[in-house]
Amino acid sequence: MSNAPLIPFPTTLQVRDTCLCLHAQRAARALARRFDTALQPFGLTNQQFSLMMALNRPEPPTMGQVARLLVLDRTTLTAALKPLARRGWVTVAANPDDRREKRLRLTGEGEAVLAAALPVWRALHEALEAGLEADADTLRRGLAALSR
């Protein structure tokens, strides 16, 4: 019986160094931490900021529209909305035209929090883009292509 590993260690190093999924996950976690820190004074996480920004539309979006945009299942979206609703920053209401459908809306207080946080988000975002070795638009296009 051999004690040789089924997968040689150099293969582990190759995966570590080349895996797009691993690199995307690491980058996403690092970016989320930076934005979480920047948005913390407003009582927001990066996820909450993105969710609230997704609600900033001329007409209140449906749960399905927001879930698709943020690539969340409805259960996860519902859980993410609860703390924002408790703070009075968003409302979830039945669509008057179709009671089965829920519409999501920022409240005035939610809009104010989002407006206060936006300059901080912009400043950090600009600093991150300026520090990239590659063109930010090329990076966005590549990430968008991978997310399809």
Automatic annotation (TrEMBL):
Q: Which Gene3D superfamilies match?
A: Winged helix-like DNA-binding domain superfamily/Winged helix DNA-binding domain
Q: Name one GO biological process term.
A: response to stress
Q: Which domain of life is it from?
A: Bacteria
Record-given protein name: Probable transcriptional regulator protein, MarR family
Q: Name one GO molecular function term.
A: DNA-binding transcription factor activity
Domain HTH marR-type intervals: 17-148
Q: One Pfam family, short name please?
A: MarR_2
Its organism's taxonomic lineage begins at: Bacteria, Pseudomonadati, Pseudomonadota, Alphaproteobacteria, Rhodobacterales
Query: What SMART domains does UniProt report for this protein, alphabetically?
Result: HTH_MARR
